[in-house]
């Protein structure tokens, strides 16, 4: 059934049957296929009517592609050098540019690859995308239209459940790890931590600041040399800008901690730390620049940025915890063996709690102290 649907989409796009399909992986929700025709190759993303990583017992409407298209079109308009081109849209799939020679940023991190100018390019990409698709750049009519087009209630509910709710309670989709069971029970009873998470969940659910990628992590970014591309927009919706920034920071910290606990030679964890610190500083600079380009006063931008960064650290804390406790783990951690895996998880959960509580209390140093302000994370 799946193969027939994918073949039909490829045929409709190309207008002939002279092509070859190769499964190219995919994420938690969708399948990816490479379509090789006589002249060129493409990527076909197929959205099955269920959650791919959980199976057919967890239905999910293919309507999510509508928001994938919305997000990808917005990226092509505002950050074209950082996004793949969109070629064809069908009910259950889309055909887009094949990024030949690119790899996932997550794989580069796991393999210990030092990517040139990563912090600089990632900061420009994210800051420009968030500013140009938010209240900082859009007029009232444009904001109203964006809100009408990007409700994406299905995928937002999925995020609310699998990021902010299920990982912090008993749920059949959570990861089973007997060695961490005592700490998991403690988390379920930690009223302070759960209260901070509830505040962040309310921000996720109610804030309407701008269009987000919605699932921005090292598995939805691809790199090739100095180039970087943002992919997988099916979670795109209008929400708090802190959510996308927090997602990037969470995955960066996971990569840092796994390399740090390995006790690796060559200083890769130190490189990750320095790049992340540079990314934060450059993100602030880029955000101020692009918001200023649209006429916002500097005092307003700086005040907003301070609140944004505090909230982003809280979002990052939640994202770290859900990768350990919830349904969607990450290879950075799952590829580790015991007892290293459990030690990494333990340290990350301690950090996750501190990040969410600090954010809720507003006691994260942001503007003062420069990069020294981030030493508590490491």
From TrEMBL:
Keyword Nucleotide-binding: yes
Keyword rRNA-binding: no
Matching Pfam families: APH
InterPro entries tied to this protein: Aminoglycoside_PTrfase, Kinase-like_dom_sf, Methylthioribose_kinase
Aminoglycoside phosphotransferase domain mapped to chain residues: 24-278
Any one GO BP annotation for this protein: methionine biosynthetic process
SUPFAM superfamilies (UniProt xref): Protein kinase-like (PK-like)
UniProt keyword list: ATP-binding, Kinase, Nucleotide-binding, Transferase
Enzyme Commission code: 2.7.1.100
Matches recorded under PANTHER family: METHYLTHIORIBOSE KINASE
Protein's recorded name: S-methyl-5-thioribose kinase
Species in which this protein is naturally found: Wolinella succinogenes (strain ATCC 29543 / DSM 1740 / CCUG 13145 / JCM 31913 / LMG 7466 / NCTC 11488 / FDC 602W)
